[in-house]
Amino acid sequence: MAAARLILASGSKARADMLRGAGLAFDIVPADIDEQKLLHEMLQQNKKPETIAVALSRAKAQHVAQQNRNDYVIGADQVLWFGDRIYSKAKTVAEARRNLQDFRGKTHRLISAACVACGNEILWEGAAHADMMMRKFDDAFLDGYIAQAGDAPLKTVGGYELESAGKMLFEKVEGDYFTVLGLPLMPLLEFLKGLGHGG
Questions:
Q1: What is the rounded distance in angstroms from the CA atom of residue 91 to the CA atom of residue 150?
Q2: Residues noted as catalytic
Q3: Taking the mean position of all CA atoms in its chain, how far away is CA 141?
Q4: What are phi and psi of 128, to 5 degrees?
Q5: 199/197 Cα distance (integer angstroms)
Q6: CATH code for 6-194?
Q7: What pLDDT is stored for residue 4 in this prediction?
Q8: N or C: which end of the chain has fewer CB within 10 A?
């Protein structure tokens, strides 16, 4: 019997590239949920950052699974934790620049979570984190980075892509590389293998 279809409930190119690189075949159906509303509610309840990341990934997986009830749906989310605050994607380049000024010379944490759902059932969920130690750099260096970075300052929660120009910002990274890119990839692949997806 053929394995059920696999769906990624995320429009992230980095996540899709990771899964394709692992040999998986899947469709992409980005989840249409109000992330900011859910995030605000959880922050009001003083939820921990990892709990928030997992809950957001679960909400995305469940949303798409309700519309594709016989398929396996992967939801994913990433949160950035710094100075007792969760940062969201910047809405303007000026906001991204201010965030990067806050981060420089200090360490922030990226938490990536994923969830696999089928119909009404949550089959698996997990999270991992990476600690990102940013270099001390001046504003001229920062402006040079922003000029090189393309749309990364507005496309990613931290304002950088480690797989491209973003690596120039960092002194040290502690944690799994795939976590930085947006997935707890190894445990997710191990679970998907048990469902008949992957080698």
A1: 15
A2: 77
A3: 26
A4: -150, 160
A5: 7
A6: 3.90.950.10
A7: 83
A8: N
